[in-house]
Write a structure and sequence with these properties.
This protein has 119 residues and is mainly alpha-helical. It is 82% helix and 0% strand. It is built from four helices and no strands.
């Protein structure tokens, strides 16, 4: 989880710098909500992986698949909530959302690969 927090901090600093130096056309005003949402999803996935890795990894695949399904459902609910509220620039919101989704998914795969390779 420490790697996820560090990656989120670095990503947050990068987003702040882009926004500060005139990247307002690239980032939606709700980018911070999206970032906090993905940090929460990463925490949830991390907790499910810890539970799955207990008991001699008997239920690891089940918990991993359940974390993927939970992530997809929560992402759809998150997007639907903000679209229902009426966004000013919904296309930019969706582009920013899926860019962060891709970042966190790649980061999760990398972390999983490192953990499984070590064992």
């Amino acid at each position: 989880m420490l790697r996820t927090l560090l990656a989120t901090l670095i990503l947050g600093i990068a987003l702040f710098l882009v926004k500060h130096f005139g990247g307002d056309t690239l980032l939606h005003p709700y980018i911070w909500y999206i970032l906090i949402f993905f940090l929460g999803l990463s925490f949830l996935g991390h907790r499910l992986m810890e539970i799955g890795l207990r008991n001699n990894r008997e239920k690891f695949v089940t918990f991993y698949i359940s974390s993927i399904v939970a992530r997809i459902i929560l992402c759809l609910v998150f997007i639907a909530f903000f679209l229902y509220q009426g966004l000013s620039n919904s296309f930019l919101f969706i582009i920013n959302f899926f860019a962060l989704y891709l970042f966190y998914t790649c980061f999760e795969i990398y972390g999983l690969y490192c953990n499984l390779r070590r064992d």
